[in-house]
Amino acid sequence: xxTRACLPLLLPLVYWLGQSHCLDNGLARTPPMGWMAxxxxxxxxxxxxxxxxxxxxxxxxxxxxALVKEGYKDVGYEYVIIDDCWLENKRGANGRLEPDKKRFxxxxxxxxxxxxxxxxxxxxxxDYGTKTCAGFPGSIDNLKLDAQxxxxxxxxxxxxxxxxxxxxxxxxxxxxxxxxxxxTGRPMVYSCSLPAYQEERKxxxxxxxxxxxxxxWRNYDDIDDSWYSVSTISAYxxxxxxxxxxxxxxxxxxxxxMLIIGNFGLSYEQSKAQMALWAILAAPLIMSNNLESMKxxxxxxxxxxxxxxxxxxxxGIQGRRIYVEKNIEIWTRPVIPVVxxxxxxxxxxxxKRTDGRAFPYNVTLANIGLTNTNGYKFEDLFPDDVSNSRxxxxxxxxxxxxxxxxSIKVHINPTxxxxxxxxxxxxxxxxxxxxNCMDIDTPCVVLIx
Length: 449
Prior knowledge:
By secondary structure, this protein is an alpha/beta fold. It is built from 15 helices and 18 strands. Helix 4 links the parallel strand 2 and strand 3. The longest helix has 14 residues.
């Protein structure tokens, strides 16, 4: 854990250290956004008993429709992605992959066409190994053929898993498949799962290779529909951040896995916390939920334009956990605008507390790396909501310019978040204004008229 004293000195260095280059396919310049079946629908292939929940072309058409009808497409969610369990148990006579004929009677190309007709993009799943994780045909002996097949189906996004494969062969194997994807001439976002398998084996991961080959990659365990899972994944990202964060950037992203907001396992406060954390991490925002039955308060979280703008920030710098105290975590991410060489920041105060009340927390700006001498203007990125108001969370912080040597106070609900943007102020915005420094308990601020 870093001390308060050393944070301002270290932050500029660790944020910029070792920014790397990615494969030159021009894709995923910001983290991909869309919807994927796996976490919510898993490998349900029983369409007779569960017609609305089985992995079928009907499900993906419905979710494509919902992305458009419910406004998700309008705010940037664009991919509809099949995960495992779409295949027949064997390849066709010509060696090609074939979808389950009962559940995908019109074939994958027809489904791809339907998704494209909605102004969306189409994604699919395969596995580098001999079988997929659910036991369907894998790609290891047919990498070139499968890449050609996906291109013919006009796939826009491919997730390549790593079950039933040697972790020692994955670096070369994933690179080979990426080469075949590029040779098709069709741009396809390439999502790689190999680091999650190598991390499990405590192997040294070749992130330089990943950034050259893949647009995004899974680093850790599959997410489950629980706060424990969200908390564990974010904690592991924090542990590994000095290694992982430097390889994230336009075209190549660390992937903490799907958004589970609107399912069964997260409360409203925990859902806000996942959204904030994923935005701080510059994570792909791939939902896995039922878009047709989404409650309004969860839909509002997923479509929050201010938070989506943080996730999609063009600088592409992954944020970090910079402080932990009393089960309160502080995460920051540099974002635009950059003023006089000083970043603006997204700042998330995440509570891991469960003691039943909003916890008050004070922090000095300079101690969390906010050092612009002209100060910062603050904005609460969540609206007044069913849980509490902006006033309850941050007081009158939005009416002030706070200078770096002074503190701010927030109130964070149990297993919740206060998520704010601190916009760096230009000298012209404070020149000629008087400071309000009435007493030791009042932040030294510039009042906004």
